[in-house]
């Protein structure tokens, strides 16, 4: 009989292996990364185009094109597409990403032949209806105005702008004028340039048999491929590179709390210190038992929530700490945050704490490999971000073997106050 008075035994995570997808190609060369799970009766198909902010020539072109792709084709209206997918128990989502445009279809296996053609039609013959574009402008502006009343949103926009620069693809912030300026012709131009078979990656997981692959080839493999346009990376250079990080305050009428964002520029995933920084960030503020959560939330009671994160994009990255506190505690909270960073620079991590962090990260990675849906997300991320399976294995080895001394060295290198912008909004 289960003894509920005793905690369950904690087992180490020993076996972490990223699934190796089978690579097949459609007739027009589109690569399809297949994870076949014969025991499942679901099908997940994701189309990824490298068509994000770095490819824009006009602000919001990437996001608007992706959002309006499902709002109508030459044959069907957006409502008809939604109704058709719903009838067969399928769903489609368009997740937000700065570097890519992605479209995810979920379906039960037996109706794949009904929904994959519609999915392909949406990807290959969007109409970008003018009325849907106008509705997108109106609702997006309204949502933006609501978000700009929140200190947390304003602080995030300001810190990323300061880190990367206000004209950088990762740093610019949308304003109502940007939505009003986007035109149907901008979407058609962006689509024709970047939504080509040569710029597409397909990921198929679940019950992916020959019949599903035949459907994909029939409906997505016949479109003529065009060479991917040359990308210019010049605009990815920060236009704020000469500015020295400092403390910046922005007033926000009606704000009851002070939103704090403390951030710096970092690097993308292929940097040699990236894996170690993932571990260090977890120690600092990446999970519920972190230094920031334990000392600033639980011991000092300054806030309900505080965290740090490392955001890695395809061409760059940043790190930031975020929280909201009462205005009279904001200066004290900022000092307390830097104090926790200083401790990591001066004192090696105790083995017990490091062991807990290792187990937490490995457990999250294990959860990410659980089942066809999660596994396909992991595989997709590795491939889109130009990561090999060996890079995943290297991350696992870093988590398991990184020393307290190495983490201290990384803290001394990357957690210096002089490198961080401090943004407060109240």
Summarize this entry quickly:
With 426 residues, the chain is an alpha+beta fold. 44% of the residues lie in helices and 16% in strands.
Per-chain topology:
Blueprint: E1 22-25, E2 31-36, E3 42-49, H1 61-68, H2 78-87, E4 91-93, E5 101-108, H3 112-124, H4 130-147, H5 151-164, H6 176-181, H7 184-194, E6 200-206, H8 210-220, E7 247-250, E8 258-265, H9 274-286, H10 291-299, E9 306-312, E10 317-325, H11 330-346, H12 351-368, H13 371-384, H14 389-401, H15 404-414, E11 421-425
Parallel strand pairs: 2-6, 7-11
Antiparallel strand pairs: 1-2, 3-5, 3-6, 4-5, 8-10, 8-11, 9-10
Helix pairs in contact: 1-7, 3-8, 9-15, 10-11, 11-15
Question: What would your notes on this structure say?
Answer:
This protein is α+β, with helices and mostly antiparallel strands and 426 residues long. It has two domains: 22-128 and 177-234, Metalloenzyme, LuxS/M16 peptidase-like (Cytochrome Bc1 Complex, Chain A, domain 1, 2-Layer Sandwich), CATH 3.30.830.10; 247-425, Cytochrome Bc1 Complex, Chain A, domain 1 (2-Layer Sandwich). It has helices spanning 61-68, 78-87, 112-124, 130-147, 151-164, 176-181, 184-194, 210-220, 274-286, 291-299, 330-346, 351-368, 371-384, 389-401, 404-414, and strands at 22-25, 31-36, 42-49, 91-93, 101-108, 200-206, 247-250, 258-265, 306-312, 317-325, 421-425. The protein has a six-stranded mixed sheet, with helices on both faces. The protein has a five-stranded mixed sheet with strand order 7-11-8-10-9, sandwiched between helices. β4 (91-93) and β5 (101-108) form a beta hairpin.
């Amino acid at each position: 009989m289960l003894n509920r008075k005793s905690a369950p035994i904690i087992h180490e995570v020993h076996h972490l292996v990223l699934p190796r997808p089978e690579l097949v190609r459609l007739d027009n060369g589109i690569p399809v990364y297949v994870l076949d799970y014969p025991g499942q009766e679901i099908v997940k198909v994701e189309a990824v185009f490298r068509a994000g902010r770095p490819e824009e020539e006009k602000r919001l072109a990437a996001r608007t094109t992706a959002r309006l792709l499902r709002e109508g084709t030459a044959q069907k209206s957006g409502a008809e597409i939604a109704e058709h997918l719903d009838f067969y128990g399928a769903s489609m989502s368009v997740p937000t990403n700065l570097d890519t445009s992605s479209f995810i279809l979920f379906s039960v296996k037996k109706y794949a032949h009904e929904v994959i053609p519609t999915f392909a039609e949406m990807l290959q013959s969007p109409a970008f209806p003018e009325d849907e574009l106008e509705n997108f402008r109106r609702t997006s502006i309204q949502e933006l105005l609501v978000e700009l009343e929140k200190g947390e949103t304003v602080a995030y926009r300001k810190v990323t702008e300061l880190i990367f620069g206000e004209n950088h693809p990762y740093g610019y912030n949308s304003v109502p004028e940007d939505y009003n300026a986007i035109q149907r012709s901008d979407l058609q131009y962006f689509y024709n340039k970047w939504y080509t078979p040569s710029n597409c990656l397909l990921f198929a997981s679940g019950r992916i048999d020959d019949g599903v692959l035949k459907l994909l080839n029939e409906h997505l493999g016949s479109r003529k491929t065009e060479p991917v346009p040359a990308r210019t990376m010049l605009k990815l250079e920060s236009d704020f590179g000469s500015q020295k990080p400092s403390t910046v305050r922005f007033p926000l009428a009606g704000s009851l709390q002070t939103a704090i964002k403390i951030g710096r520029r970092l690097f993308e995933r292929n940097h040699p210190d990236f894996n170690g920084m993932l571990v260090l960030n977890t120690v600092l503020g990446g999970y519920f038992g972190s230094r920031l959560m334990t000392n600033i939330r639980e011991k000092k009671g300054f806030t309900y929530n505080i965290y740090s994160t490392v955001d890695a994009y395809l061409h760059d990255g940043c790190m930031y700490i975020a929280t909201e506190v009462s205005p009279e505690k904001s200066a004290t909270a900022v000092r307390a945050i830097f104090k926790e960073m200083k401790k990591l620079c001066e004192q090696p991590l105790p083995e017990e704490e490091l062991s807990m962090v290792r187990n937490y990260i490995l457990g999250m990675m294990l959860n990410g490999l659980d089942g066809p849906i999660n596994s396909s997300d992991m595989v997709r991320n590795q491939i889109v971000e130009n990561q090999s399976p060996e890079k995943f294995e290297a991350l696992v080895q870093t988590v398991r073997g990184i020393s307290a001394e190495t983490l201290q060295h990384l803290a001394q290198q990357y957690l210096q106050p002089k490198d961080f912008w401090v943004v407060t909004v109240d």
